[in-house]
User: Fold Cytochrome c peroxidase from Schleiferia thermophila.
Amino acid sequence: MKKNALALMSAIVLAYIAGQSCNTGSEKSGSAETVSAFTAEDTALWKIATNIFKPLPPLEMDLESPLFKLGEKLYHETALSANNQMSCNTCHQVKNFGVDNEPTSPSFDGSARGERNSPSSYHASLHIAQFWDGRAADLIEQAKGPILNPIEMGLKNEKEAVNRIKAIPDYKALFAEAFPGVKDPITYHNIALAIAEYEKALMSPAPFDAYLQGDLSSLDEQQRKGLKIFIETGCITCHTGVNLGGHMFQKFGLVKGPYWEFTGSEREDVGRYAVTNNEADMYVFKVPSLRNVEKTWPYFHDGSVADLGKAVKIMATTQLGRDLSNEQVNDIVAFLRSLTGEIPKHIASN
Assistant:
């Protein structure tokens, strides 16, 4: 089974690379001058990369719309927690790339901690599903969870959440504007819908996006070297597309396991199996996006590893059966830093 997995990974990598040998027309017209300033090897790598990864799409939404403004306020609303001190932003801090940098996040009263690391809310709208185990289909369903979770925001039920929002005078007009013509717009579903609308704007274009669009100088020499190693090692088996992850599920410890022997995890999490009860989903988790990974430590579903280089080495071993040298790890980490974007102006200025 493990040999078959490795063979498949190798085939995927070779297919990507071989497929580019005759693909000479993929350059965008506006990028030819930038590309031509680099070596043939640099250009070949860029062509391969543009077939494996995609830049972030342009943000095409009205940041002044009533629904967006409502969602922005609700995302930061502490009245949605039992002690009036916690909001979505407590664990998913928008000015900190959507994370709190905690292994697992504390509950509203500090009496307990969640069992899994709080993933970044940035680029979450591009994921195949939400939460590490994919139990929520979309952002709306995801937003409904933490508010009623006893070890997160701690409200008893949807009615309590709605009543708390109705008790704040400003929200009457805000909901009426966001949901025109609706007789009673302050509902739990609409609270979640508005939060999800705000989260769709949490995008942070990075140097790697400029690289994919033809500006090869956006990555320095070590980062381009790290990109090449990232591809050839087989990391692209899971980390591809616009998010470099987030689009599939995979077993942690696919080639070498169990995973906790490598991460030092205190708890053996069964992953998606808890949702599906399917033995094939044992220790399976959603593949995380690598965007802003330099800033979203600690790593893995339980936040068990704080160092990015160590996380890279563990992934190579457990998922690919590869033992990377320190130089290779350092080069990959350099590449991963090119995925660090800028906090968007509409977030930074608020």
Notes: The radius of gyration is 22 Å. Residues 317 and 323 are 6 Å apart (CA to CA).
